[in-house]
Amino acid sequence: MAASIGAVVYRALHSRRHRKLLSVGRGLFSGARCLVAEGETHFGFQKVSETEKGEKVYHVFESVAKKYDIMNDSMTLGIHRLWKDILLHQMNPYPGTQLLDVAGGTGDIAFRFINYVRSQWEHQIKQKLKSHQNLSWEEISKSYQEEELKLPGGSQVVVCDINKEMLKVGKQKAQHLGYSEGLSWVVGNAEELPFNDNKFDVYTIAFGIRNVTHIDQALQEAYRVLKPGGRFLCLEFSQVNNPLISRLYDLYSFQVIPVLGEIIAGDWKSYQYLVESIRCFPAQDEFKGMVEDAGFLKVEYRNLSSGIVAIHSGFKL
Amino acid sequence: MRPRVFLPWAPSQLNPGFAAPLTIKDLPAPHLWRGDQLHHTDLTVTAEEHVDEEKYYQLYPGHIPTSPLQKALLSAGSAFMALYNPYRHDMVAVLGETTGSSALRSLRDKMRHDPEGYQILQERPRIRLSTLDVTGLRGLSDGTFGREYVRFLDSNRVSPDTRMPVKFVDDEELAYVIQRYREVHDLMHTLLGMPTNMLGEVVVKWFEAVQTGLPMCILGAVFGPVRLNAWKLQILTTELIPWAVQSGRNASCVLNFYYENRWEQTVESLREEIGILHPPAICV
């Protein structure tokens, strides 16, 4: 029914040639394109059964795993690094934080977390030295150690991903970059996490939640594994609010990104799926509602790059 | 009738309302429908039907419809990537598909005007390990086309199944023509007596450039030699290229031969029939 409303709106727009309304119509119609029947879900713009979606997503990430990082850099012209840095700044972890990074595959968030915590620790030591406070012998010995036996304060990050190939790439990266302590890699499904209740201080999911078949279940699991006072952070592609940027973004997404996928990774279809899945993901406010439904409080979102990406944050209180 | 505005990007991708209720099953039989008509303004556009975006223009299994802008980007990108990383054979294939439309059309016309070529277009034979009787071919006597072909496959350790499927050609018959060209490429290696190293591939590309006029072959022929050392370049320019070009000019269209029926023919007689001149006595 919504699809036919979309059609009527489209025909009306086209006959009156209202350029300004076209973006609204397009938004309506894109939404209509993503409507599905019961028991069905969307895989990009395709309609598939819910069991199929999980399998298809698994195959997509299995095939892109090796070129995942280089594709991210090419598609976003390196801007994804800034987005992830902003996420970490918003998280502002202190030494001692326990982080769970879901759909963390190749480890970008985990490595940034480790760097942040280490630099926080160094900052703390510097502050103490500046104010002439005496450092304890533990702190002195730690600051001299070249090999960190543990992360400062006992911080820990668990990277959880459903896809073994992505975790494999992540582990290789970690070895290559020299991250070993305080880091663990776990295979798990965001809808059914293999962790006990009330375990983590922060739960992050960066560019992963739109690939989950049942987003509400993933949010409930997030609520479950967080400690009281814990924070939920989600970095995800969202809807652009500026009409001009929206047109350019659509053009770039549909024309350039699959071509980049074909040339760099030899895989057009996976990147076609990627841009379609972004369009079918709920908008900022709707997703905020879903986060609130899972029980989180003080839910806020922050747009980055005019809404191309949004960070949603909530607390378990 | 909705006015047709030419956009370098496919309308369905920016204006989701321009949707058609078609899947590949609904399309009329290929011989009734000219695949080059991509914009059907006489179809009723209904939004009630769910659109499977991928299947809208899909003309054959594996077809990915692309807009002119995407084709341009693909051509540029694949050309660069093929030079940067010569092991990316898929990039060479993509370059051939995105730049070859007029050359493919003239090849198809040549095939249509020749009885054997026309038969190939009708029957659409494919050269694959599953359809080839490799042991039978190996049993043929030395010097026969079939025996030499299998010898070529064995000594270069290649297989006919590694040919890329066609993705970006927007006409189902032309997609078959380029697929046939790819599958015949190995047979060309056999007839020209060239191995699959860089030098051999460049020679075959020169021959194919003259024969087919495909821009990808021309680019490969011109830029392929940049990776060769001086000695190989010398042999190439003094002996191999002149021979390849002359053979290419002298030979009739290589796609007009039903190779699957000619396994027992000797290589020499097949060369004579096609018009390929005797290869120079050089170890490549």
From TrEMBL, chain A:
Signal peptide from the UniProt entry: none
Membrane topology listed for this record: Peripheral membrane protein
Entries under PROSITE patterns matching the protein: SAM_MT_UBIE, UBIE_2
EC number: 2.1.1.201
Pathway(s) this gene product operates in, as recorded in its UniProt entry: Cofactor biosynthesis; ubiquinone biosynthesis
Principal localisation: mitochondrion
Reactions this protein catalyses: a 2-methoxy-6-(all-trans-polyprenyl)benzene-1,4-diol + S-adenosyl-L-methionine = a 5-methoxy-2-methyl-3-(all-trans-polyprenyl)benzene-1,4-diol + S-adenosyl-L-homocysteine + H(+)
Positions with a binding annotation for S-adenosyl-L-methionine: 106, 161, 189-190
Subcellular location: Mitochondrion inner membrane
Enzyme class: transferase
GO molecular function: 2-methoxy-6-polyprenyl-1,4-benzoquinol methyltransferase activity
Keywords of the record: Membrane, Methyltransferase, Mitochondrion, Mitochondrion inner membrane, S-adenosyl-L-methionine, Transferase, Ubiquinone biosynthesis
Superkingdom of source: Eukaryota
One cellular-component annotation, GO: mitochondrial matrix
GO biological process, one term: methylation
Listed InterPro entries: SAM-dependent_MTases_sf, UbiE/COQ5_MeTrFase, UbiE/COQ5_MeTrFase_CS
Database matches in Gene3D superfamilies: Vaccinia Virus protein VP39 (3.40.50.150)
Known function: Methyltransferase required for the conversion of 2-decaprenyl-6-methoxy-1,4-benzoquinol (DDMQH2) to 2-decaprenyl-3-methyl-6-methoxy-1,4-benzoquinol (DMQH2). Methyltransferase required for the conversion of 2-polyprenyl-6-methoxy-1,4-benzoquinol (DDMQH2) to 2-polyprenyl-3-methyl-6-methoxy-1,4-benzoquinol (DMQH2).
The family this protein is said to belong to: Belongs to the class I-like SAM-binding methyltransferase superfamily. MenG/UbiE family.
PANTHER family: 2-METHOXY-6-POLYPRENYL-1,4-BENZOQUINOL METHYLASE, MITOCHONDRIAL, METHYLTRANSFERASE
Assembly mode: Component of a multi-subunit COQ enzyme complex, composed of at least COQ3, COQ4, COQ5, COQ6, COQ7 and COQ9. Interacts with PYURF; the interaction is direct, stabilizes COQ5 protein and associates PYURF with COQ enzyme complex.
Protein name: 2-methoxy-6-polyprenyl-1,4-benzoquinol methylase, mitochondrial
Organism listed in the record: Chelonoidis abingdonii
TrEMBL record, chain B:
Primary subcellular site in the record, as a coarse category: mitochondrion
GO CC terms: extrinsic component of mitochondrial inner membrane; ubiquinone biosynthesis complex
Membrane topology, from the record: Peripheral membrane protein
Localization per record: Mitochondrion inner membrane
Molecular-function GO term, any one: zinc ion binding
Required cofactor names: Zn(2+)
EC number: 4.1.1.130
Enzyme class name: lyase
Chain positions recorded as Zn(2+) binding sites: 185-186, 189, 201
InterPro entries recorded: Coq4, Coq4_euk
Keywords assigned: Lyase, Membrane, Metal-binding, Mitochondrion, Mitochondrion inner membrane, Ubiquinone biosynthesis, Zinc
Biological pathway: Cofactor biosynthesis; ubiquinone biosynthesis
Reactions the enzyme catalyzes: a 4-hydroxy-3-methoxy-5-(all-trans-polyprenyl)benzoate + H(+) = a 2-methoxy-6-(all-trans-polyprenyl)phenol + CO2
PANTHER family for this protein: UBIQUINONE BIOSYNTHESIS PROTEIN, UBIQUINONE BIOSYNTHESIS PROTEIN COQ4 HOMOLOG, MITOCHONDRIAL
Protein's job: Lyase that catalyzes the C1-decarboxylation of 4-hydroxy-3-methoxy-5-(all-trans-polyprenyl)benzoic acid into 2-methoxy-6-(all-trans-polyprenyl)phenol during ubiquinone biosynthesis.
Quaternary structure note: Component of a multi-subunit COQ enzyme complex, composed of at least COQ3, COQ4, COQ5, COQ6, COQ7 and COQ9.
Protein family according to the UniProt entry: Belongs to the COQ4 family.
Protein name (record): Ubiquinone biosynthesis protein COQ4 homolog, mitochondrial
Lineage per the UniProt record: Eukaryota, Metazoa, Chordata, Craniata, Vertebrata
Gene: COQ4
